[in-house]
Amino acid sequence: MGSQCAVVWDESVLDYDLGGHHPLHPIRLDLTMRLARSLGVLDGVEVLEPGPATEEDLLRVHTPEFLEAVRAAPLAGWEVGHGLGTEDNPIFDRMHEAAALISGASIRAAEQIVSGRADRAVNLAGGLHHAMADRAAGFCIYNDCSVAIAWMLEQGVERIAYLDIDVHHGDGVQAAFYDDPRVMTISLHQHPLTLWPGTGFSTEIGSGAADGTAVNIPLPPGTGDADWRRAFHAVVPSVLAAFRPQVLVTQCGADAHREDPLADLSKTVDGQRATYQDLRELADSCAGGKWLALGGGGYSLFRVVPRAWTHLLATLLDRDLDPETTVPEDWMAHAVRAAQNVPLPTSMTDGADPSYERWTGVTASSVDTSIRDTRHAVFPLHGLDPVDSRD
């Protein structure tokens, strides 16, 4: 029997720094770990130090030409192609080493689960889900999610479910396994007609023998806790139960929050906390308790990400925090120096009620239309009734 949860972390992961005022600033990770420690969430937890992914690990997902370009980019300047040197993916010193370490951290977390040393594991620095086989994209150099999944498949894991709750479509992971029936990818995201990367329609369902193993739930701008969770529960538990994964991998981007500056969904920290608890329940009921959690997006660096991911750590460790918990003064004193007049939260709640009503069919809500479209696209491929709301 594995331990409760393995936490993979070292301050060296903060070297994945895209520079200056780039939205993916590593301070969000630093503030998360400081908040979790200050609240006692990590008391008695032995944090595991990551090592870099090997070339063999990365080549399971990425092309040799892309790895060569990443290595060469800091010296070659801005003409290397492969999505490098753009506004989203600026070149920085020791870029290959920093990105390989993030992937290595996700493999280290996966190792704990595959070996049986832990039932759950987390790498908050991971979740870089947009990188493709031969190019960087969306702040992501190497796709640690796909690298960890490919590593687990190599170790003999037969069925892996990847569940992405980032506000942006999990396009890189879907592309990596679109024709692989061993991997189910599920993504809840803002509708692709309204947000980059413009993919993730309900009609994207996988190909060949993997028909039905890509599941996409596009959500209209403004979707809040109740509608988001109704969509989640109307689709995800049924397809996971049908697929029967041996490991559940979740990308837990915090950018579906109403304050995120790069997107337009309207979840709250309370809704995110409830979602993490839903993920825990699904891991237990559908994947034998095996749960690999990764970070992801989230660009409200001071007000949202630290609180959301502290709740995630607490959920993984079965140390759930009362939403009314006060944010500690020592954390506030540290954060205020970097926040540059951004008002800081004083408690672990947004004061919202994240409850939802079960889906019973299409109403005037555009969320219910998305639910219908996804159910009709994939449910029959798993022997499920797309109309019966009990499925």
Automatic annotation (TrEMBL):
Q: What family is this?
A: Belongs to the histone deacetylase family.
| Natural source organism | Saccharopolyspora hirsuta
Question: Which residues are listed as membrane-spanning?
Answer: none
Q: What is this protein called?
A: Acetoin utilization protein AcuC
Is Transcription one of the keywords?
Answer: no
- Quote the Pfam families the UniProt record gives: Hist_deacetyl
Q: Which Gene3D superfamilies match?
A: Histone deacetylase domain (3.40.800.20)
One GO biological process term is: acetoin catabolic process
Q: Name one GO molecular function term.
A: histone deacetylase activity
Residues of the Histone deacetylase domain: 22-315
Which keywords label this protein?
Acetoin catabolism
Record flagged with keyword Zinc:
no
| Pathway connected to this protein | Ketone degradation; acetoin degradation
